[in-house]
Design brief:
The protein has a single domain, classed as Farnesyl Diphosphate Synthase, CATH 1.10.600.10. It is globular, with a radius of gyration of 19 Å. It is mainly alpha-helical and 303 residues long. 70% of the residues lie in helices and 1% in strands. A two-stranded antiparallel ribbon has the order 1-2. The protein contains 15 helices and two strands. It binds geranylgeranyl diphosphate. Geranylgeranyl diphosphate (GRG) binds next to helix 4, helix 8, helix 9 and helix 10. The site of geranylgeranyl diphosphate has 17 residues, from helix 4, helix 8, helix 9 and helix 10.
Length: 303
């Protein structure tokens, strides 16, 4: 199976799980369930659940019973996008090629939709899973929760806001403080959920501690490369290709890899991280291992 076929088939499994497990749109009060379904079922690469699937398969697991837990990652990711697009944060009206959730349903409902998706995610993660004992499941839930708490994704978002407060940054030579602030933002805002996705797959698949350490290194390298590529796409691609507003990082004076070190050095750093991700992916010796190919896809993507 080529990587394109693999991604297509795993994406279809995630889409089916999301469609099946999300509350029906007519569940009272209908407006919140319509908004949740609008936000989640409106496209997206589904890269986080696919990373969990790939890690579980690389560790030899059958993935069908795990799909609900893996799809919870997409609820958490979508909640972060819905909240990030709100007027108080990025104030954006375009996401995944469609109007943002708060533009369609109003700001109050946008806030509540994000809240509902985050809560729903942990309910999916806590649902009993055939063949997985409770202590493993608790370990998996704790891993995901830590990745998105105030020392993870939220912390990264706060650091990002603080780095941009006061309007556009004046271009100037960058110092060690800028690089470490940027690393903190990227590792927390984006990297930790991507790493937790890989670990969720490994933990629920029954991976041992050595395999989990390898998966963590793979996830951290892939997660950072993902965000560097995202920074590059923001300056290189159009809104039509990205399905979201392009050029926002420069407009908002965001701390990004290309802003700090230039596009060429940023691309080289993504390449170095890809090498690290592939080396770790190749250490997992399961029967079906697409982890290296996914890292390559993440680095080569155009949207
Ligand atoms: C909780 C408000 C709040 C924010 C948390 C994750 C995040 C911080 C904000 C979302 C916006 C953003 C630019 C995040 C960086 C991570 C990123 C590149 C998200 C886009 O992910 P893709 O490319 O999107 O996987 P699709 O649409 O394919 O799912």
């Amino acid at each position: 199976m080529t990587i394109d076929e693999y991604l297509k088939s795993r994406r279809a499994m995630v889409e089916a799980a999301l469609e099946r497990e999300l509350p029906p749109a007519n569940t009272p009060p209908a407006v919140i369930h319509e908004a949740m379904r609008y936000a989640v079922l409106g496209g997206g690469k589904r890269i986080r659940p696919i990373l969990a699937i790939a890690a579980a398969e690389a560790c030899g697991a059958k993935i069908e019973p795990l799909l609900k837990a893996f799809s919870s990652l997409e609820l958490i990711h979508t909640y972060s996008l819905v909240h990030d697009d709100l007027p108080a944060l990025d104030n954006d009206d375009l996401r995944r090629g469609r109007k943002t959730t708060h533009v369609v349903f109003g700001e109050a409902m946008g806030i509540l939709t994000g809240d509902a998706l985050l809560t729903e995610a942990f309910s999916w993660l806590a649902a009993p899973v055939e063949g997985v004992d409770a202590s493993r499941q608790l370990r998996a839930i704790a891993e995901v929760a830590r990745a998105v708490d105030s020392t993870g994704m939220i912390g990264g978002q706060v650091a990002d806001l603080e780095a941009t407060i006061g309007g556009a940054r004046t271009p100037r030579p960058h110092g060690a403080d800028d690089v470490s602030a940027l690393l903190f933002i990227h590792r927390n805002k984006t990297g930790k959920l991507l790493t937790a996705s890989v670990l969720l797959g490994g933990i629920l698949a029954g991976a041992d501690d050595d395999e989990l350490a390898t998966l963590r290194r793979y996830g951290e390298a892939t997660g950072l490369a993902f965000q560097i590529v995202d920074d590059l796409l923001d300056i290189e691609e159009s809104a039509a290709t990205l399905g979201k507003t392009a050029g926002k990082d420069v407009e908002q004076g965001k701390l990004t890899y290309p802003a700090l070190m230039g596009a060429e050095a940023a691309r080289a750093e993504a390449g170095r991280l890809l090498g690290e991700a592939v080396a770790n992916a190749d250490m997992i010796k399961g029967p079906l291992n697409y982890l290296a190919a996914i890292a390559r896809f993440i680095c080569d993507r155009r949207s």
